[in-house]
UniProtKB/TrEMBL annotation:
Domain Phosphoribosyltransferase: 110-256
Entry protein name: Purine operon repressor
Naturally occurring in which organism (per UniProt): Pediococcus cellicola
NCBIfam families on file: purR_Bsub
PANTHER family: HYPOXANTHINE/GUANINE PHOSPHORIBOSYLTRANSFERASE (PTHR43864), PUR OPERON REPRESSOR (PTHR43864:SF2)
């Protein structure tokens, strides 16, 4: 955009879009002043309007940074009532008998390929870690990939895919063996050496957890890179007969599925985030 004076209404729309597309990214007053050929005092007033609107509508927090090089960054959050409505809607959509799969699993592919649902789920998960430093999102090559990508979008960080079989394009890798929580089989997962730096703060995200073996494997892989696990969140937590291999997991939903019935309840997300 050239240096052209812009009306306030147009500025507000463009600034709002700019913040929404770049969460957790500091945008300076100088940048907007040059972008719209406007005084910094006017830009500061615009930011105050956007900040108030975001707060009132539950969109998130526009955190302002004072000083000569100051500006603002947008932190997406969600209010408790909206979070409850989203979770209840997910429960309603999943609570049909035809979704039960062998082994106590649940068919969720249609929901987890819906961009509207993915945006809501990504925002829910990102909100739990809105005020923590997150450097990367990690998931395994399953249906958790689109969820991880959505969370990464809201946190403004890259996402990393752990694979069971390395690709030649990955270069050299680090691998770990882990025990599947459902089949008790020893499996392998690996990650390119270039994917993580020591000290990286990693959030693990997955679609479904039963025994927790896969999550335990990702935690071990994070340790091999001397990175730091800051949290683990799953879309749905299934019922498990034995002791889970991974503890302290946040779940949006709890699923109790057997051969002829299904029961879905809210997970511990609402309690962990809002209480």
């Amino acid at each position: 955009m050239g240096v052209v004076s812009v009306r306030r209404s147009d500025r507000l729309i463009d600034m709002t879009r700019y913040f929404l597309e770049r969460p957790h990214t500091l945008v300076t007053l100088s940048f907007f002043a040059e972008r719209y050929d406007s005084a910094k005092s006017s830009i500061s007033e615009d930011m105050a309007i956007i900040k108030r609107t975001f707060a009132n509508r539950g969109t998130g927090i526009l955190e302002t940074i004072p000083g000569a090089a100051g500006g603002a960054l947008f932190i997406p959050t969600i209010q408790k009532q909206e979070a409850k409505e989203i979770i209840n809607d997910l429960i309603q959509q999943l609570s049909t008998a035809d979704r039960i799969l062998p082994g106590g699993y649940l068919y969720m592919s249609d929901l987890l390929s819906n961009p509207v649902v993915l945006r809501k789920v990504g925002r829910l998960i990102a909100s739990e870690y809105a005020h923590q430093k997150v450097d990367a999102i990690m998931t395994v090559e399953t249906k958790g990939i689109p969820i991880a990508q959505s969370v990464a979008d809201y946190l403004g960080v890259p996402f990393i895919i752990v694979r069971h079989d390395s690709k030649i394009t990955e270069g050299s890798t680090i691998s770990v063996n882990y025990v599947s929580g459902t089949s008790a089989q020893i499996k392998k997962m690996e990650l390119s050496k270039r994917s993580l730096q020591a000290g990286t703060r990693v959030l693990v995200v997955d679609d479904y957890m039963k025994g927790g073996g896969t999550l335990k494997g990702m935690q071990a892989l994070i340790g091999e890179f001397d990175a730091e696990l800051i949290g683990t969140t799953v879309f749905a937590l299934g019922n498990s007969e034995g002791q889970r291999m991974s503890d302290d997991v946040t779940s949006l939903l709890n699923v109790d599925a057997n051969t002829d019935a299904i029961r879905i309840q809210p997970g511990n997300y609402l309690t962990k985030v809002f209480e």
